[in-house]
Automatic annotation (TrEMBL):
<dbReference type="InterPro" id="IPR051402">
    <property type="entry name" value="KPR-Related"/>
</dbReference>
<dbReference type="InterPro" id="IPR013328">
    <property type="entry name" value="6PGD_dom2"/>
</dbReference>
<dbReference type="GO" id="GO:0005737">
    <property type="term" value="C:cytoplasm"/>
</dbReference>
<feature type="domain" description="Ketopantoate reductase N-terminal">
    <location>
        <begin position="9"/>
        <end position="170"/>
    </location>
</feature>
<feature type="domain" description="Ketopantoate reductase C-terminal">
    <location>
        <begin position="266"/>
        <end position="363"/>
    </location>
</feature>
<protein>
    <submittedName>
        <fullName>6-phosphogluconate dehydrogenase C-terminal domain-like protein</fullName>
    </submittedName>
</protein>
<dbReference type="InterPro" id="IPR036291">
    <property type="entry name" value="NAD(P)-bd_dom_sf"/>
</dbReference>
<dbReference type="Pfam" id="PF08546">
    <property type="entry name" value="ApbA_C"/>
</dbReference>
<dbReference type="InterPro" id="IPR008927">
    <property type="entry name" value="6-PGluconate_DH-like_C_sf"/>
</dbReference>
<dbReference type="InterPro" id="IPR013332">
    <property type="entry name" value="KPR_N"/>
</dbReference>
<dbReference type="Pfam" id="PF02558">
    <property type="entry name" value="ApbA"/>
</dbReference>
<dbReference type="InterPro" id="IPR013752">
    <property type="entry name" value="KPA_reductase"/>
</dbReference>
Amino acid sequence: MSTEKKSEILLVGLGAIGTIYAYVLQASGLANVTVVARSNYDVAKGSGIHIKSLKFGNHPGWKPDNVVASIAEAATKQYDYVIVTTKLVPELLTTPQLLEPFLTAPYIDSFEQPVYVLAQNGLEIEQDLYDAVAALGKTPKILPCALQIGCSLVDNVVEHLTGENIIIGFHRPNDYLTATNTADEQATLDDLTNILKTGGSDARGVPDIPRYKFHKNVGNCTLVSTTVLTGYFLSAFLRQPPTNEGDYTEYLHPRNKDKVEQYTIAEFKGLVKENLDVAKAIGFPSTADCLPPTMADDTIATMRGMFANPAVKDGLMTSTQRDCASNLPMEVEVILGSVVRLAEKFQVDIPRIRMAYAMILVKQNQIFRLKGVKA
């Protein structure tokens, strides 16, 4: 029997993605996993969550090793990694505010700072936490992630198909282009990705994580712009009418199909191209697997292929589209605003993204009003 010491890992947020990765970490057998579950604490402690995944299996009543109701409750021991999977709306709560119990006494008087892993959407999300750790006189270790996974959590059931991968790397302030890791950085990445891979994840560490984060955000930026402003998923302008009535109900109606194909799809591709223009100005290399010049056409072709399958039913939504429809705060700043600010920094003209950002800001503003958010 192995006597190798297990890593101590805290995962913050037991939504769909948090549940999948808490399961992966626990399944590895290499980590003691504690989860902060706020809204679903009673379920996680009681009957558990039903995981239905074609990749990771069917697990009724799955529970983490240890569940707590708050970060403050968790901040009582040394952790190797603190993994954050929550939605990020910095207008309401910044990451240092979320993790305050780890950045203040008594924790900082008794324990070393953990490695912080930000498994969240968006760009430029790491610096405020980096600064907060540095202000303690500690060397910050902040690992942003680029995730490709589609899963949902409804009525305590997490549904996930087969697609999943996570790319992880070190945040370096104002450094977008470093292409090598130090020995210490590589050792940390090797340790964390080994735990994830042992648990069944397709995980890898890279030295140039900003490039992969940007690649992921191209899709998010384009999909959020399109779905939030129209209120429809891409099936509304890419899917052909069903051959058999009742297969699905959301598709491109023949009446003005030609105009949608002429204008809407062109503007969708234009959104992708503007993102790629910013990537080029930053200096990111273009490769087949990351920021390829064919990304706009590739995205459309992939979506058309998906919608050609009648088994793909109605109801697909981006998480931000779902938030908007439910009058919940959206990840506007980290997905769209970050691209606008990078474009300003690198002097790139992105009129489509700026327009989308400007209009969705109004929706966000009114959600704040409806929720009674304090000024």
